[in-house]
Each structure stands twice: as structure tokens, then as C-alpha cells.
Amino acid sequence: MEEVLEGSHYPARYWHRLEDGRLQCDVCPRFCKLQPGQRGLCFVRARHDDRMVLTTWGRSSGFCVDPIEKKPLVHFLPGTPVLSFGTAGCNLTCKFCQNWDISKAREFDRLNDRALPDQIARAAVQLGCRSVAFTYNDPVIFLEYAVDTARACRALGLKTVAVTAGYIAPEARKDFYAHMDAANVDLKAFTQDFYHRLCGGHLDAVLDTLLYLKHETEVWFEITTLLIPGENDSDGEIDALSRWVVASLGPDVPLHFTAFHPDWKMSAKPPTAFSTLSRARSIARANGLRHVYTGNVRDATGASTWCHGCGDLLIGRDWHELTAWNLEDGGRCRRCGTRLAGVFEASPGTWGRKRQPVRLVGQEAP
Description:
3-stranded antiparallel β-sheet, 9-stranded mixed β-sheet, about 25% helix, TIM Barrel
């Protein structure tokens, strides 16, 4: 493992020197070009002593044991607890950010929890977690910390989960996802205009990530689209998005439509109506997607998993808690034997909907 430098200036991967002397960060499609002392837009990747460093390696905004369904992942080890953490910063500028106090943070005193990758993995085992999630802000920008932690987790038999916007450059993408077992990717909209105006990014880069995950990895992934009134919730856009998922990724990829709540720089927008989520789910299902979910609302039908073979209830959910389990043989419908795509164990977890904040300071090996 590379040496940790003073001040959390950890040697970064994926950068190169330009002819004019600037250093270009090659982690995400922004390709920030830095003069001495400058930071990238994400604020956590910086130029220090004529090299690129990650300033948040080993530093977290907090740890919490969550239900895996909260990521959201509903076809990956249902009912199990996942140790979740993030750092600070983000490589997109979403005006509707729901975690803006973390992702937009430039005050590093927020990063109070210090933990090495081995400590995180051991703590997850002690806490009875089946996986560790890199979440709250996008793990793409703390790639080195996430990858080092993922290696430590795999050594102890733990799965790793990335909750991400998928905004990552091709070479870094290969390294990052080689160490992930599951991902939830935010497909924030299906127009370049939306990404440009509200996220400061490009749609094509995210679609490329989804295509890469499907066709070049074994990573289990699900997709989330936050529906914002008047921005990305039209019938036409939902139709186009869901048709693309079916045609390019297949009918078994779970798609989550979640409700927007006014926040950050879009506090004047109304929250998403329940009817909008239901309509989006109906459109996507009519287009051939087998597993379409509603989120950020209480909806037992839209939160549950149904057999695409016989229509029976396979996994019942109330918020993030399991209420029914009708799978056998690692993911087959008990009634008709149709296999449900995903990663399932013989029996579901029993963690329920609770969230348990934890401190890793002073954690010892079991």
C-alpha cells in the first residue's frame, strides 16, 4: 500500500502532466487541470508538491449501519445490514442535491471519523454486516480510499457497494469497479440539457458507465432516477429512459423512481407527487422492465418484488423492512420456479429498517 503523506495527502492514481506544466486529473470526465496549490472541482483531489493527491484518504463524514435496501439495492442480499460511510465533496454540481451538507462540504473539520481500511473491514465484521457501502457522497472522488477499503473487505469475506452517479473516466472506471460487488447508479435524467443545467455534467458519460457495468463486469447494479417536477418527469422522458434501459441493459435491471424533496438550490420546487411515481412505474413496466420500484414514499406495491413469471409476491417490503419472502434455491419463485435476477442467499437478513450510527475510533480486531 502506498505511504500516507502528512495532512492526509495520499498519492492519487490517474493523472498526468501536461506540456504546459499543469497536472490533469484523469479520474472523472471533468479532467481538471491544476496549477500548483489548486484543487479540482470535487475539492478533495489536489495538486501538492508537484503531484496529485487525495486529501480525504482515511477520513470520513461518519459511519452508519443501514439496511441494504436504503442504498437502494433490493436484489442484493435483501434484509442484511451494510456499514455505510462517505467523505466530503463531489464531482457534480447538482442543484437538487439531497446530501448537500456532505457532498458540497469544503470544511474538512466535518471529517471527524478517521479509519484505515483494515479497521473499517474489521468493524463491519464485528457489527454483523454482510457488506460495506461507499455512499453519502460519490466514491468516485475518493477512489483510492474506496479501493483500498474494498480490498480489505474482500480479504474478510465482505461484499462492497458503490452508491454513485457513475461520472467516471474509462481507465479509472476499470480499476474502481474491479473492486465492487454491487452498485446503485444515479441516472439523474435522460436529457443532456438536464445534466448541463442542473448537474454540470454530461449524460453520455453516465450511460457509458451503465453499458460498461452490464457488458464488461460481473457487478450487480441497480439504477435510481429522482423525479423532479417539471424537470425530468414527463411521460416522454420516462418512456425514452425506460426503453433505453430495456434495449441496452436488459429487462432485469431494477429501476427505482424516487421522490424529490425540496433541498439545496431547488427548495422552491414542490415535492414529487405519489401519482407521478406510480405513472413512471407503469410506463417503465409497459416498456418491458420487470422490476420497477418507487422510493422515498410509503408504497407496499411499488417497494415489493413480484415474479415476472407468475405474478406472485416474491419479496414484500414496508419502507426498508422485509414483510414476505417467497424465494428458494438462491432466488427462484416458490410457486413457478422462475429465477429472479440478483444476488440472494438461502434466507433473507433480519436487520429491518433501523439505522445505527457508529464510531470506529478505537476499533480493535475481533
